[in-house]
Amino acid sequence: MCLSAACGFRIFAPFLVLSGAAMGGFYTPADELSWIGSWTAVALFGTATAVEVLAYYVPWADNLLDTIATPAAMIAGVVASASVLGELPPALQWTLAAVAGGGAAGLVQAATVLLRGASSTTTGGLGNSVVSTTELVFAVGISVLALLAPFVALALLVIAARFVWKYTLGRRSKVSLGQERPST
Known about the structure:
The protein contains 7 helices and no strands. It is an all-alpha fold.
């Protein structure tokens, strides 16, 4: 689930990490997804990651990418989960991947969309580069930790979720309930 959640931060960076780990012998993808451990996949995921990262630093493109990235992140989350669940029977592998993997990626992607929206609203888009950099760090860091120390990765995701809740959704709830005055 942590690998899938990382797809919610960035779609291609977790797959670049998976490709590198497979090439280095640290991870063996499921048989039907063995292509993840090829030089072609490393090159494609590396290029796609670079393009995705750079696009998130273009002020108008970052919000447009969020529209495209939401369904793509969920699909990526399913594939990432399935790639590590190869020991299970196919029906169980893909059911778990769809529910847990797609769900984790979708939740994280939704949180990043809310965070970027809050950043765009409060900073006029000037803070979005900080959000983009943080998302990239989390995507790579969570992906690496998911392979090396999955419980640490899960703890970081919980902390990040709490932060997003506190500074976006929690704040909106207080404003709508009249507990906090919106700044003018």
